[in-house]
Amino acid sequence: DSNDDIEDVSLFDADDDVSRRSKKSKIRHPVASFFHLFFRVSAIAVYLLCELLTSSFIACMVTIILLLSCDFWAVKNVTGRLMVGLRWWNQVDDDGRSHWVFEARKVSAQGSKTSSEAESRIFWLGLITCPVIWVIFAFSALFSFKVKWLAVVVMGVVLQGANLYGYIRCKVGSRKNLTSMATSYLGRQFLRQVRFPGFWKPS
């Protein structure tokens, strides 16, 4: 039911050619790489230090939510496209139906069009690590009965988890592709068991 445009892109681009590898090891978008980590790391730092800096819960909550919102927008619209050639969004067709679109830029033979290995590592490290930290914060707030912080932590999990899910879908493929791959795998295993019925029996 969804119109997913999927192309292949490498998580950690590496080339056998030494000259291209030297180009890929450089950070081609330093500003994007900086802001890819700045907002999400700042939100975590404010969450950890806010009780030491101020006694106002409202000020801390608003600051963290603003940082998380800026991070969500920057990662979804800017850094993913520049650093790894991935993007995802939602569009509504003429019939009013909502469609999620996941795109991945093909690796080009031109070095100027490919993502650098350093940027890919920065992008995926920040994208995966920070949601995990917010999940840890969620369990910590839950078990320590910090109910007032639970809403802020859940916001962090949702916003950063949404970007993580979207970019994984861009890299791995659409749900339809995953379903067909699983069906094909199970079909091969079934045919293998039919051809060799004693293969799966324990020795």
TrEMBL record:
Pfam families: DUF846
One GO cellular component, as annotated: Golgi membrane
Signal peptide: none
Species of provenance: Pterocles burchelli
Protein location: Membrane
Entry keywords, A to Z: Membrane, Transmembrane, Transmembrane helix
Entry's family note: Belongs to the TVP23 family.
Biological process annotations from GO: protein secretion; vesicle-mediated transport
Membrane topology term: Multi-pass membrane protein
InterPro entries registered for this protein in UniProt: TVP23-like
Protein name (Swiss-Prot/TrEMBL): Golgi apparatus membrane protein TVP23 homolog
Keyword Transferase: no
